[in-house]
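User: Hi! I'm working on a homework problem where we have to compare a predicted structure to a textbook description. Could you give me the structure for the chain below?
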Amino acid sequence: MTTFENRPNTALIVVDVQREVVAQAHARDAVVANINLLVAKARAAGVPVIWVQHADEGLVRGTDGWELVPELHPAPNDVRIDKAYGDAFEDTVLAERLAALRVGRLFVAGAETDACIRSTIHGAFTRGYDVILVSDAHTTGDKTEWGAPEPAKVIAHTNLYWTHHTGPGRSAGIAKTADVDFQVPSALHAPTSQGILE
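Assistant: Happy to help. Predicted structure tokens:
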């Protein structure tokens, strides 16, 4: 359904699961475990895995905090994307890499839900991709001291509104890790308590 022509392929994008980014994240270990399951499913299906890493003044490229968490193991041929903005497409080569792979459908997981995940799923959707957010494979830290809801509610709300996000010629939705089938375009589900981290 993507608005791109001749883009039949799917990719998994893992956003900013870096040591410093997820150090205090909600349900961190469960989310990382789910991402590992998604990566294994993608590899079994021959679907490319794309790893995105953020860098800025507070998160310096090459430092320990910038590195991916040690539980994740990119393969040598995986695409790696460095970014400096919330949207993983902004001022990066992500769009060019996806075009070369003829990808029109994206599964997205990672951190942080209320920042780079939201920016990236919206950025992808507005550019014409079908975008599935993996509902139990994204997380965020606690920002309640600045007036944000607690992390579980941020995650639940994002899953809820992405389930109902629409636009001409492309699709949005969510899927739980256990239900993700990279070969089936209709692997979209309404949010349930099992699909929302509490």
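For your comparison, note the following. The radius of gyration is 15 Å. Helices lie at 28-45, 94-100, 113-126, 151-163. Good luck with the assignment!
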